[in-house]
């Protein structure tokens, strides 16, 4: 019997990857994915715990399914991801409509948990088992897929930044062995994938290859048909010489790097337990740019970290001015119970709002300037899908800019040279050049 599975994914790309793999595992149980909760036999919320009100969001989302559950008592509702890990038991207690709770390290047990839930029992698994969940998930079916894919190679984090729940929810750093990653990558390429983004909470700490992430990237480069490699997200202190060199030497490694710094004041970086100074970060960027002069950088920033003064905040603005980011994510500090920063003197909310606005104005200006500077240049675009207008195709440049092109005879998965002619709010427009 075919059953329908609706998965709602919150948070980072690692959750996107996990949701795909859970859908595949449930495929083995006769489930097909549906895009709406209305006709689902099972609803799974894949949650994120990184910022405040995570659990509240889950409860309010669950509330929306009350009517569905009442109309269809057979409907099973599950909570997965980092909120499940942190607050699973509490969720089950507080919200009786939840049948199943599964933590991020136990997804391979999802089919068993679902079978248990089908008997009417409550099913909960938030262990950190020894086995590799990805190996125990059923193999990906050989179906064709789009030209870009995520591939998780590392999970967990040992850095313990003072604001962050990841070391608690996702546990210690763990790398998948290179041969398993290679097998999965080859399989993805056979199914039509041309670009792989390697994922990890702290991906450049990867040690599943004897020569680290750089070694893995060099091995991935040998796969025919794989054209592009990216990785995210990285910690500055794990950016070793081999990885810096790879940016200059590996043709398939794209010139775009997400390297969060969080803040530009040494006083705040120290309180954040980042283990590096602003100057060290800037020197690292210099070395990366020496290896790959056209590298576009992206980052994460937190404003209003406890005890952050106006002067500290200005140091962050100064660092941003010095780096010139191609894109960035920025957040107001959000107090996370159980993390060291939650104990310290908090910055008033209106101050955080004001700083976030000023920070984002600067980042948007930089992002726009770098995007506009692409006009007149030639880039190579990996086409992904038709655009909104007839005859249009959309893809991504090496620098991750979305590019629209009027293109005859171009299909998803093709890579072609494009001259950029215009720069809009969120994307570039260009014309196809002779190949
Ligand atoms: N408050 C605000 N932002 C946070 N991040 C992580 N924890 C918090 C928090 N408590 C941000 C960091 C990190 C990104 C994934 O989320 O910038 O790099
Ligand atoms: Fe969190 Fe990233 Fe710091 Fe690890 S390195 S504790 S995941 S912010």
TrEMBL record:
[4Fe-4S] cluster 1 binds at residues 12, 48, 82. Binds 2 [4Fe-4S] clusters. One cluster is coordinated with 3 cysteines and an exchangeable S-adenosyl-L-methionine. Keywords: 4Fe-4S, Cytoplasm, Iron, Iron-sulfur, Metal-binding, S-adenosyl-L-methionine, Transferase, tRNA processing. SMART domains: Elp3. Residues 3-119 form the MTTase N-terminal domain. Its EC number is 2.8.4.3. GO terms for molecular function: 4 iron, 4 sulfur cluster binding; metal ion binding; tRNA-2-methylthio-N(6)-dimethylallyladenosine(37) synthase activity. It catalyses: N(6)-dimethylallyladenosine(37) in tRNA + (sulfur carrier)-SH + AH2 + S-adenosyl-L-methionine = 2-thio-N(6)-dimethylallyladenosine(37) in tRNA + (sulfur carrier)-H + 5'-deoxyadenosine + L-methionine + A + H(+); 2-thio-N(6)-dimethylallyladenosine(37) in tRNA + S-adenosyl-L-methionine = 2-methylsulfanyl-N(6)-dimethylallyladenosine(37) in tRNA + S-adenosyl-L-homocysteine + H(+); N(6)-dimethylallyladenosine(37) in tRNA + (sulfur carrier)-SH + AH2 + 2 S-adenosyl-L-methionine = 2-methylsulfanyl-N(6)-dimethylallyladenosine(37) in tRNA + (sulfur carrier)-H + 5'-deoxyadenosine + L-methionine + A + S-adenosyl-L-homocysteine + 2 H(+). Coiled coil: none annotated. [4Fe-4S] cluster 2 binds at residues 157, 161, 164. Its cofactor is [4Fe-4S] cluster. One of its GO terms (cellular component) is cytosol. It is found in: Cytoplasm. Transmembrane segments: none annotated. Residues 143-372 form the Radical SAM core domain. Its main location: cytoplasm. Residues 372-434 form the TRAM domain. Belongs to the methylthiotransferase family. MiaB subfamily. Catalyzes the methylthiolation of N6-(dimethylallyl)adenosine (i(6)A), leading to the formation of 2-methylthio-N6-(dimethylallyl)adenosine (ms(2)i(6)A) at position 37 in tRNAs that read codons beginning with uridine. Monomer. This is tRNA-2-methylthio-N(6)-dimethylallyladenosine synthase. It comes from Sagittula stellata (strain ATCC 700073 / DSM 11524 / E-37).
